[in-house]
Amino acid sequence: MSQHFTDRAPAKINLTLHVVGRRADGYHELESLVAFSRSGDRLTLTPGESLRLQVGGPTATSAGDPEKNLVIKAARQLADRVEGLRLGAFTLVKTLPVAAGIGGGSSDAAAALRLLARANNLALDDPRLLEAARATGADVPVCVAARARMMSGIGEKLGPVLDLPPLPALIVNPRQPLETKPVFDFMKIPVGGETHFGPHPQIGSNISFDALIAALRKGRNDMEDAASVLAPIIGKVLAILAAAPGCKLARMSGSGATCFALFDNCRAVGKARKAIAEAHPDWWVKATLLN
Ligand SMILES: C[C@@](CO)(OP(=O)(O)O)[C@H](O)COP(=O)(O)OP(=O)(O)OC[C@H]1O[C@@H](n2ccc(N)nc2=O)[C@H](O)[C@@H]1O
Ligand SMILES: Nc1ncnc2c1ncn2[C@@H]1O[C@H](COP(=O)(O)OP(=O)(O)O)[C@@H](O)[C@H]1O
């Protein structure tokens, strides 16, 4: 049997998302504490000469044309930078909701870069790989290591990996896709302008669970109001999560519409998952640990 490599592409959760300004090229400058789930999509690479992608799984259709998939884009970006890069056939099992604020496509792209790095003996901190990540999408660099850390700039500046306590979390998507650009556009932040919503809380490694929750409460998701106008169901999801017994914090991730709730124990997450999944069988409801 031919050799193959497999990796997971976890969901990216913006525990905070502060929009702090806008660059001349229209991209928004952010400050965001990002964490990752334990589960997500699954990507396999069978190394070979030609680049191919087969997409399956429950959300494969909504991910769109495989030729435009971010897995292919990332592989081409790396091949443009690494002479003689061995490519191959990717198989993606897509389970994360698409256009959901949890960076599924970015995480798939980052997983593709990790797999190509393994197949070609490249280090994950090889500057060519990081450059390929940046060229693929703003959220791809943080998804390469897929560990909790601060992200700033448009996503290209990464703080040190943070040793956060694993956060019992429930992630809920009401299955209403919401693309990123219209939400940023709706915020109407002028180019060159700065926002004045307040500073980001300081969060370091080895912070206790309670101190982390207190710090996160001082932070925000600045895209929440705009996203809630474009997809009013977000308000309902947030209200349901906030009312779940034991919920310590409920917030939207990224540009939405996925929202998450943090709890101090997995039993409370399990109970909330059961209740919400039963009441809303059409929603995507996932219990996980974030860090
Ligand atoms: C908002 C965030 C927060 O983590 O997440 P999602 O909601 O997409 O998951 C990200 O910044 C999304 O990153 P990503 O989805 O990779 O963005 P890209 O594909 O590079 O850009 C999509 C579009 O979003 C806008 N964009 C993106 C990132 C950024 N910092 N400023 C922007 O204004 C641009 O209009 C761009 O055309
Ligand atoms: N592997 C992929 N998974 C999901 N979406 C993808 C993928 N590749 C390309 N896309 C496209 O990228 C866009 C954003 O998808 P996604 O990464 O799921 O958004 P978000 O970061 O908001 O969760 C969608 O329009 C989708 O068609």
Summarize the structure.
This protein has 9 helices and 11 strands. It is α+β, with helices and mostly antiparallel strands. The two termini are 35 Å apart.
CATH class of the largest domain: Alpha Beta
| Residue share in helix | 25-40%
Q: What characterizes the major β-sheet?
A: 7 strands, mixed
Residue stretches low in confidence (pLDDT < 50, at least 5 long) are none
Any idea what the CATH architecture of the largest domain is?
Answer: 2-Layer Sandwich
Strand percent estimate: 25-35%
Order of helices and strands: EEEEHEHHHEEEHHHHEEHE
Bound molecules: 4-diphosphocytidyl-2-C-methyl-D-erythritol 2-phosphate, adenosine-5'-diphosphate
- State the shape: globular
Number of domains: 2
Content-based structural category: alpha+beta
CATH overall fold name of the largest domain: Ribosomal Protein S5, domain 2
Number of helices: 9
Question: What distance separates the N and C termini?
Answer: 35 Å
Topology, please?
Blueprint (H helix, E strand, L loop, with lengths): L4 E10 L3 E5 L5 E21 L3 E5 L13 H12 L5 E7 L10 H16 L7 H10 L3 H6 L3 E5 L3 E2 L8 E7 L6 H8 L21 H10 L5 H7 L2 H10 L4 E6 L6 E5 L2 H14 L4 E7 L1
Parallel strand pairs: 4-5
Antiparallel strand pairs: 1-3, 2-3, 3-5, 3-6, 6-7, 8-10, 8-11, 9-10
Helix pairs in contact: 1-2, 1-3, 2-3
This protein binds 4-diphosphocytidyl-2-C-methyl-D-erythritol 2-phosphate and adenosine-5'-diphosphate.
Adenosine-5'-diphosphate binds next to helix 1 and helix 2.
Structure characteristics:
single chain; 291 residues; alpha+beta; Ribosomal Protein S5, domain 2; Alpha-Beta Plaits; 4-stranded antiparallel sheet; 32% helix; 27% strand; binds 4-diphosphocytidyl-2-C-methyl-D-erythritol 2-phosphate; binds adenosine-5'-diphosphate
